[in-house]
Write a structure and sequence with these properties.
single chain, two-stranded antiparallel sheet, 50% helix
């Protein structure tokens, strides 16, 4: 379970809408008690805006966890319906839609080349967000 959880965190580390974390209940007993954690490992999740956690009842494999997060928690920016997009993403969509010719493909190729490089997590997140937008625009 521990490895699947760590891998899940790596999968979503650049997500703009998902945070994967953990808490050692032997060190943070009051927090765990507040959220009804009595057995270990316990998985809880929150949807955006929720103040109360919900218990996760699904499978404990990486594939099961990834599917749950992608289907239920991750807010994706959809170019056709940008209600799930941030203001920054909407501005980027408008900028790229205004470009002509193969500008979208060139920018996507450029970003793909940068992806393997070392950068701060927030920059890698923005790079991933732009790549997702460009994939939808091409």
């Amino acid at each position: 379970m521990k490895q699947a959880w760590e891998d899940l965190g790596s999968e979503f580390e650049t997500s703009s809408s998902v945070v994967i974390g953990d808490c050692d209940c032997t060190q943070h007993q009051s927090l765990c008690s507040k959220h009804g954690v009595s057995g270990y490992p316990t998985i809880k999740y929150w949807n955006a805006g929720d103040k109360e956690s919900k218990p996760y009842q699904g499978g404990r494999t990486l594939d099961a966890l990834k599917t749950f997060v992608a289907d239920n928690l991750e807010v994706k920016c959809d170019v056709k319906d940008p209600k799930g997009c941030t203001e920054k993403e909407v501005k980027y969509i408008d900028t790229m839609k205004a470009k002509e010719g193969d500008a979208v493909k060139k920018e996507l190729d450029r970003l793909k080349g940068m992806k393997a490089g070392s950068m701060k997590p927030e920059l890698k997140q923005w790079l991933t967000q732009r790549m997702s937008i460009l994939e939808q625009l091409k």
